[in-house]
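Lab intake sheet, docking and co-folding queue.

SAMPLE TYPE: protein with bound small molecule
LIGAND NAME: NAP
LIGAND FORMAT: SMILES
REQUESTED OUTPUT: full 3D complex as structure tokens
PRIORITY: normal
SUBMITTED BY: R.K., bench team

The fields below were copied directly from the construct record.
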Amino acid sequence: MSQTPTVTLSHGSTMPRIGLGTSPMNDADAERAVSTALELGYRLIDTAENYRNEVGVGRALKGVPRDEVFVTSKFNKKWHSVEGARTAFEASAEKLGVEYLDLLLIHWPNPDQDRYVDAWRGLIALRDAGLVRAIGTSNFKPAHLQRLIDETGVAPEVNQVQLSPVWAKAAEREFHAKHGIVTEAWSPLGKGTDLLSHPTVQELAKKYGRTPGQVVLRWETQQHIVPIPKSADRGRLAENLAVFDFNLTADELTALSDLDGTAKAPADSDRAGH
Ligand SMILES: NC(=O)c1ccc[n+]([C@@H]2O[C@H](COP(=O)([O-])OP(=O)(O)OC[C@H]3O[C@@H](n4cnc5c(N)ncnc54)[C@H](OP(=O)(O)O)[C@@H]3O)[C@@H](O)[C@H]2O)c1
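RESULT FIELD (auto-filled):
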């Protein structure tokens, strides 16, 4: 089994450059999919308080030594305070059956509530305490990130956003790069769009003898974006991991980037209730 390449985050942790997304999966589905993924060599698992599957994910995690897997969770807007972040961490760690998390994210900025800077201070305290190895955000726009930096002097290590060739977010990625923030992609296969059947993707798949999903995941990984595709199918799990042994040309990367904006409005599928 070949090892997944890694990226070093700004505070020093090492994160695999592709992972498994676990939404939507219940505890039983998550236990099954995560176990299979770990068997296949996945070493980054993405869950969240909101997915209600941390117990199932945790059961599967027992199958590998703790220090060999990078575990990410996220917390809801209810916990946007310094103490709240600590409570959210404790709840996730207990459900997952782990003593520390590799990465904890604020799931959404919820600017209407305007407490995400307090949540961020809570994450900084958790990292200082060694309970969380890396800290980050999800669905934060550059203005939200800038505010965190201005008010705390600490930039997130990762920002997880909806991203694929049809939502390429070039300006956001540029902002991330400038501040040492790794871009993680949710819906990296363009869920809810016809990305995988687009002729540009299909032609490249044919040219390289790969699947459309692999072409799209290569567009991401080749540009240092960390995708977390979700699959509950053993074949597709294996396929999604095998994207580091071919390279798209610069023109092909551009042709895929040109699909930006061709899909309907972003799904923002798991925003509700956060
Ligand atoms: N931070 C956030 O706010 C947020 C929001 C949404 C999602 N997420 C995270 O991101 C993860 C991934 O996003 P997502 O699930 O929305 O979208 P996605 O990974 O782009 O797409 C998943 C869908 O594609 C199918 N699929 C997987 N591999 C495939 C392949 N190689 N070829 C064709 N189809 C394939 C899956 O079905 P099968 O299972 O049948 O393979 C599933 O229906 C989630 O699981 C979650 O962890 C985060």
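REVIEWER NOTE: The pocket of NAP is lined by residues 21-23, 46, 107, 138-139, 160, 186-191, 196, 211, 213, 228-233, 236, 239-240, 269-270 (CB under 6 Å).
SIGN-OFF: pending second check by T.M.
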